[in-house]
Amino acid sequence: MKHLETMEEFNALKNNGKTIFMFSADWCGDCKFIEPVMPEIEAEHDDFTFSHVDRDQFIDLCADLAIFGIPSFLVFEDGEEIGRFVSKDRKTKEEITDFIDAL
């Protein structure tokens, strides 16, 4: 999964195609829990671009998007938000896959 570097990159990804942004942080135990399965999830959903957003690096973006718990997922298609899986709860591979499949 590519790590988001700039707000310009966020806007480009958000506005072009289907992108799933995973909001996470190095210190987040629940985020570390799902990291090993994310490559599998990406491979199973290759019609999406996946981007990792470091919550601490992009704290203003998280506030703007109402991302108050991590790990969280926000999905855009051509500039429009089409889904959000946002909470402070631990997420399983099955829950993430079900969320993406329902988009």
TrEMBL record:
Domain Thioredoxin, chain residue ranges per copy: 1-103
InterPro entries associated with the record: Thioredoxin-like_sf, Thioredoxin_domain, Thioredoxin_H-type-like
PROSITE patterns in the record: THIOREDOXIN_2
Top-rank taxon: Bacteria
Pfam families: Thioredoxin
Record protein name field: Thiol reductase thioredoxin
